[in-house]
Amino acid sequence: MTMMTGGQAAVEALKTERVNHVFGLIGSATMEIFDALYDAPEISFIGIHDERTGTHMADGYARASGRTGVVLAGQNGPGATNLVTGLAQAMAAFSPVVSIAGALSTAHLYRDAFQEVDQEALFKPITKKTWTAPSADRVPEMFREAFRVANAPRKGPVQLNLPRNVLSAQADYPPLQSVEDYRPCPAPAGEAGVIARAAAKLCGASRPVIIAGGGIKNTEGHSAALALAEALNAPVVTSPGHGDAIPFGHPLNAGQMGPRGNVVASQLVKEADVILALGTRIGFNATFYSYDNINRDAAIIQIELEPTALGRYFPVEIGIWADAPTAALQLCEEVKRLDQRRLADDWTATFKADRQAFLAARDAQAITAANPIQPSGLFKTLRDVLPKNAAITMDAGTLCLQATDALNYWHPKSLFTPLDFGLVGFSYACGLGVKLAMPDRPVISLMGDGGFGMTVSEISTAVDHGINTVTVVMNNKCWGAEKAYQRDFFNGRYIGADVSSPAFDKLAELYGARGFRADTLDQMAGAIEAALACGKPAVVDVAVDPAALYSFRRDSFKHRGG
User: Which of 264, 313, 447, 462 could form a disulfide with 452 if both were Cys (CB 3.0 to 4.6 A apart)?
Assistant: First the structure.
């Protein structure tokens, strides 16, 4: 038995979980934890400027590394409330984040004490689980539960509140268990009979398509998905935000599907006779819940690790509760055993020709001579200059939505987006977490000027900790999505749509980072190459045509015509 404070026990629990980065903002409510971190050199504490952005860092770190992201809000009340947006974002992404916040001393509860807020009620709707440690001796147990719940399928964020008196109290602790002793995580396989039925259905298809989703991307299960695709000679589309689920260069890769995807991939799903949904909910961003974006007559085979996702939005002919890569390999073996004639050869040959024509037209039609810079020219330049091993983070907004399928993702995992939460202000902080998870890969964060303006204070975090990402600010001086809707559906009655910002390249220099500027497309390639080579955090301020606006959600304004 070892006598420790609750704060010391918290840090020992983090060590047991092999945590090597904690993102946090210091606060008086958790001083015992910070004091214990001082004596824990194996844990790198990344001091942040805002709890929200720290949560995005933990989220990006978790997605990129496959480990658990940890964020520490040192203060109860406002320190904790600042976590809300980041945890809601992590929840939408099924990202395993353990969020820790200080909490009011238990003796002061329900007395309108300083910075009192009901933190359990606050976080319950946006986490897998939220709870408060009741006593110092139970702190290790609470941490074990936090990491277990965050990493159990489907993964997601949890919130652990630690009252001041719990952290300062002392208790005797037995030696902590190793992770392997209490958190086995087997990957469930599909039931053999159902796998056989699904394989027969796929082999009999003349127009099969595979949708690879987060269940393939997040597990790095692309090899399993592609082995099945090759056995069937079937094209693979990726669900929105998961364009890196399989490598860009594979000949069966059609790219991102759906209302925001490319025309070739989207058409495949509209025409397929059998659709294998491999680790995807077939949800909103993929379909807008409409048969306008998926063939009503197709037989759907859905494989999901979350049983409540099976057949939730579209009726399925075969639903398989299983780990997506595991089930893909099972299907592959069964398809090979059946050894039936490939009915889909003509379908796939046509797809390959269409895909090559689409990629060629994308380059040929890019506007590269115009000034100011047009989005298509910007994206072509990025395709030309970004290294193949680059990891790319994005915000929401029309420019980033276009970029998700306009860039090439050569190596899973390479694309990190807000996904269904549609959060502006996510990309930069997420990129810092991704870079810490992938220190040997270049990390490029794409943002609009509005979103970057929300998070610029974290430039000093990047400088202080040597987190050398490159941020490309696509500066069109407006909130582009909303301004497009005001232009197209509200007769150009603009209000609140324009953004005033400083020169971000100069601002970066003031923080101690490197700043670069591109007012023309000719300057852009050199600016990005210089930023990648500078060996410091870098910001490239790119002047994009403010008139190059696009209304993505036209369906939302059908009632207004136009």
Answer: 447
**C-alpha 58: how far from its chain's center?**
11
**Cα separation, 482 vs 479, whole angstroms:** 6
| pLDDT score recorded for residue 560 | 77
Q: Which pLDDT score is estimated for 401?
A: 86
DSSP labels, 42-93: TSEEEE-S-HHHHHHHHHHHHHHHSS-EEEEE-SSTHHHHTTHHHHHHHHHT
Rounded to whole angstroms, the Cα distance separating 141 from 132 reads: 12
**Please, are residues 246 and 383 in contact by the beta-carbon 8 Å criterion?**
no
Q: So what's the pLDDT on residue 278?
A: 98
| CA separation for the pair 437, 18 (Å, rounded) | 14
The DSSP result for 448-517, as a single string, is: EHHHHHHHGGGHHHHHHHT---EEEEEE-SB-HHHHHHHHHHSTT--SS-B-----HHHHHHHHTSEEEE
Nearest to 241 by CA among 483, 423, 450: 423
**Tell me, what's the pLDDT at 1?**
74
Are the beta carbons of 549 and 483 closer than 8 angstroms?
yes
Q: Distance (Å, rounded) from C-alpha 97 to C-alpha 439?
A: 20
CATH of the domain at 237: 3.40.50.1220
Q: What is the tally of structural domains in the chain? A: 3
- Whole-model pTM above 0.85? yes
**Contact criterion met (CB below 8 Å) for 322 and 276:** no
Tell me the CATH number at 513. 3.40.50.970
Domain membership of residue 117 as a residue range:
2-182
As a whole number of angstroms, the distance between CA 67 and CA 87 comes to: 16
Contact 193, 163 (CB under 8 A): no
Residue 341: what pLDDT?
A: 67
For residue 287, the surrounding DSSP H or E stretch is: helix 284-287
Give the dihedral sign, CA 187/191/197/200: positive
Task: Give the DSSP letter of residue 108.
Answer: G
CA distance 398 to 487: 14
Domain stops at, among 323, 338, 356: 356
Q: What parts of the chain have a pLDDT lower than 50? A: none
Contact by Cβ (8 Å): 55, 89: yes
φ/ψ of residue 334, rounded to 5: -70, -40
Boundary (domain end) residue, out of 158, 182, 206:
182
